[in-house]
Amino acid sequence: MKASLAWLFLLFSTPIFAQLTVREQFEKIGTKEEAQKFIDANPALKPTLLYLTLGKDTTLIDKRLLKQNKGDIFSVGYVTYKVLDGTETTNYRANYIFLDGFSLSPAEVDSLKKVILQKHSEGVSFEDLSDQYTMDGNKTRGDTDWFFGEMMMPKEFQDAVSKHKKGDVFFVDVPERQWHYIVKKTYDDQVKKEITVLRANGR
Description:
Elements: H1 2-18, H2 22-27, H3 32-41, E1 48-53, H4 60-66, E2 73-76, E3 79-91, E4 94-100, H5 106-121, H6 126-133, H7 155-163, E5 169-174, E6 179-185, E7 190-201
């Protein structure tokens, strides 16, 4: 009799023990479509998708989530989160003076660089120097506005700006195109990050 009761207990309790935890279920979810299926199938867990933006969403849990990477899963209390997707870009902004190596000799380029730096060190604004010397006809006083990616500026330009801090003045050369830039970084980098998070009660 006792053996039969024990067998019945194991029989009926097996599905309970075999049921996946929320974390285990989250590990199997990799897309928003799969997340939506989970949401539809588990209303008791109050699941939802969160869309968070760095700088806009500022609660403590939002800030913690925004530090996570795609695929990360963690629990706070009895709530579990998974970062399903995320995009991050860094925008840069600077002022520049363009010197055309097809129109100027290397010696003339070097001479102009020295003249421009000397005038800037004497107090002439970089914007005024751009208006006076740039050779690309820009009407923005050399301001790049916020940019990222090679569609906006040459890779050499972006790489150099990313390595300098606000206020630095430096040279960028693109030898194969004979492009020469004198650049002043005018703003700190602007990081944009957006993530999609699956949230549900349970662990």
